[in-house]
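Subject: Sanity check before I submit

Could someone independently write out the structure tokens for this chain? I want to compare against mine line by line before I put it in a report. The sequence has 162 residues.
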Amino acid sequence: SRTLDNPWTLSFPSGWGAPAELRIKDLQAWKELDLSPEGKAFSGTVTYTTTFNLDEVMPAMHYFLDLGRVEMIAVVSLNGKPLRTLWAPPYNLDLTDAVKPGENTLTVEVTSTWFNRLVYDAGQPEANRKTWTINGPDKKEPLRNSGLLGPVVLKTESSVQK
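---
Independent answer below. Compare away.
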């Protein structure tokens, strides 16, 4: 097994205080990224993209991906092929039918809850709020971890029966 440690590109939707793209070396919660206070409180879907290389794809091997910790839902694609939506631990899936020799492009769309945005908006003047609820969290609530927290690990297993 090996941890995927190439840089990740995060793509945020516009209009929510985060940059269109952010490149990071280490996976961490959105609230820990170098973003504006509004960006740290982002709630919604962020697309993570990275690459990894395989010298060869062995026919007698199965390839699995373990996303580690995810807050909350992950939609996984490899080389443009949609694979699975994972919404509860363990965040694992079989990549065997999608891996190829050489460079592989992994895409993970991670969707959080609205909690952090509701906390952020509770501290904003009403005219500046983008969300509202009848009884939401207080502006003093700490932000919760959101995003792909990892570690993301590629695992192989022989498909030959012993």
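---
OP: Matches mine. For the report I'm noting this point. The longest strand covers residues 45-54.
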